[in-house]
Specification:
By secondary structure, this protein is mainly alpha-helical. Helix content is 76%, strand content 2%. The chain has a two-stranded antiparallel sheet. The radius of gyration is 24 Å and the shape is globular.
Length: 288
């Protein structure tokens, strides 16, 4: 019994510092935002009176509904495009690249992490701009007479930029899931007369689904709350929920409403995340 108590104290001493750090750094700001969301906004001050009015405005305001819907749609499209493009890359590295070269490929995939996210966003603005790389190249080749205007300051450019920014986050978990697949299962499928396509569909893809779901979750969560890309690539003309929160918090100094928007967005993301985690557990049970 004494030995058990000593081990318990040792374990608590190990987890206490990171737990306190997480409590101060993460829980305290979240609880502060939650508390602010139930307060009343006054002129240049916050009236400490409990109210549901902020959440009522979030639920009934058509502008909030449009922005929230746009954020969800953009996040879903970016996630779908990113995962769809990441899976072939991860599959190629896992199944085609020789084992001694896989480390090099993974190193190349992580190269975008070498630069700041903000720098990458500005580079895409240069690439997609009116006089950017794409338009200059197409004009120089004689393919178009005038620069294209639909590739910047719209949803298309936001999707392209976000898909590139989060591609490594999708490739790596899918690659890990593919690496864990027992190759003998694929050989057994082909020995039983299955084609390569059917073996992929009935064996490889189901076994890789935990990695795919992890990639979906990793990309979706930060994408729906992205602020920089809609502001820079969208030119501020296509705001998402993070941009609306920033306007309420800073420009309009309406911190209670901004907090209510933030809490609502977090709840939506939490519900979707729980659904994906449930699906991931189902696939893990199937694998077992």
């Amino acid at each position: 019994m004494a030995r058990f108590d000593a081990e318990a104290r040792a374990g608590l001493s190990l987890i206490a510092p990171p737990f306190l750090y997480a409590l101060v750094i993460l829980a305290a700001p979240l609880l502060t935002i939650l508390a602010y969301s139930f307060l009343t906004d006054g002129y240049l001050e916050i009236i400490r009176e409990f109210t549901w009015a902020n959440y009522a405005e979030v639920m009934t305001d058509p502008i909030v509904r449009v922005v929230m819907t746009r954020s969800l749609i953009v996040a879903i499209v970016v996630t779908a495009v990113t995962v769809a493009l990441a899976f072939p890359v991860a599959y190629y590295v896992s199944f085609v690249v020789r084992p001694e070269r896989k480390s090099l490929w993974l190193f190349l995939i992580t190269i975008p992490f070498w630069t700041s996210y903000l720098i990458r966003v500005f580079l895409w603005k240069v690439i997609l701009g009116y006089n950017g790389v794409v338009n200059s190249s197409l004009t120089g080749l004689g393919i178009i007479d005038e620069p294209l205007t639909f590739i910047l300051y719209n949803v298309n450019s936001i999707v392209i930029t976000l898909a590139h920014a989060y591609a490594p986050f999708a490739i790596l978990p899918i690659f890990v899931a593919l690496e864990k697949i027992d190759r003998s299962l694929l050989e057994a499928g082909r020995d039983l007369g299955e084609s390569r396509a059917m073996t992929f569909w009935r064996v490889t893809l189901p076994l890789a689904m935990p990695g795919v779901l992890a990639a979906v979750l990793i990309v979706f969560i930060p994408t729906i709350g992205d602020y920089v890309t809609p502001e820079v690539i969208g030119g501020g003309k296509i705001p998402m929920i993070a941009n609306m929160i920033q306007v309420q918090m800073l420009a309009l100094d309406n911190r209670p409403l901004g907090s209510a928007l933030a809490v609502t967005a977090m709840l939506i993301v939490a519900v979707i995340s729980v659904i994906f985690l449930f699906l991931n557990r189902r696939f893990l049970k199937v694998r077992q």
